[in-house]
Amino acid sequence: MGLVKFALKNPFAVLAGVLGLSFLGVAVYPKITADILPDFKKPVIMSYFSYRGLPTIEMEKSVTSRVERALTLAGKRERIESRTMPGASLLKVTFQAGADAPTAM
Questions:
Q1: Whole-prediction pTM
Q2: I want to staple 92 with a disulfide (CB 3.0 to 4.6 A). Which of 22, 52, 61, 81 is the partner?
Q3: What separation, in Å, do the N-terminal and C-terminal C-alpha atoms of the chain show?
Q4: Do 63 and 89 form a contact (C-beta atoms < 8 A)?
């Protein structure tokens, strides 16, 4: 309640404060750099393996799981995603921001 009483007793002081903050905001606004969509530098490597006619379970055992195991040794990796389909395997490795993907592999 103290703030409300002060504002009611001193309307010119409140007006001066509001105007001061408004001018400060207008002066600083052009210097603010903000992007709606910032530039992300997360390197991604995608690998596609094809073995025509191989069932999904065999593709998972013989190709996808082996490549995933090998990719766990990659430095600065953030996530490994894989998708196995009949006769095909797709792997996506996402590295941490700023990492050099070819060097990490």
A1: 0.56
A2: 81
A3: 63
A4: yes
